[in-house]
Amino acid sequence: MKKDDCIFCKIANGEISSKALYEDEDFRVILDLGPATKGHALILPKEHAANLYELPDELAAKTLVLAKKMATIMTEKLQCDGFNLVQNNGEAAGQTVQHFHMHLIPRYENDGQKINWIPGEPSQEELEEIKKQITE
Ligand code: AMP
Ligand code: ZN
Predict the structure, then answer these.
(1) Handedness of CA 93, 63, 70, 84 (dihedral sign)
(2) Which of 7, 56, 59, 119 has its CA 20 to 30 A from that of 98?
(3) How far is the CA of 9 from the centre of ligand 2 (A)?
(4) Is there a contact between 36 and 115 (Cβ–Cβ < 8 Å)?
């Protein structure tokens, strides 16, 4: 299902034009308008899901297969040195458009970008507590 007021629904389904790199029955892959690096692209499912939690399993699986395919083609064509897949869920995680998307970010030596975090220093006890919280 498409969502009427969703810009990525409109782009994915071709109602708003975009620089599309790939399309099939489930997805459109477009160039990001605010790229982190040259070639930064987005995988957009044509069906609306706000985020990973809402994405049907079948589309979730297909997303990673497509990400691998695009990363392989883009690495060859752009001659990039590395590749990040980034996928944000929720405003706290940096999601600004509430339609599931996966970022395809080619990386180049000295491209000046940082897709990093400040590493914490948890104790063994803290790690054990977190493990319990998630698994029990
Ligand atoms: P996120 O922060 O994970 O929600 O990423 C949203 C991404 O969508 C950002 O990288 C934006 O630059 C990009 N973006 C927003 N609107 C458009 C648009 N109309 N066409 C292409 N990319 C867009
Ligand atoms: Zn949508």
Answers:
(1) positive
(2) 119
(3) 4
(4) yes
pTM equals: 0.97
Please tell me if the CB atom of residue 33 comes closer than 6 angstroms to any atom of ligand 1. yes
Question: What tokens were used for 135?
Answer: 């698994």
Neighbours of 100 (CB within 10 A): 25
3-class DSSP assignment, residue 63: helix
Q: Which atom of ligand 1 is the closest one to the Cα of 31?
A: 21
pLDDT in tens, 47-99: 999 999 999 999 999 999 999 999 999 999 999 999 999 999 999 999 999 99
101 is annotated as an active-site residue: yes
What's the CA gap between 74 and 97, in Å, rounded? 24
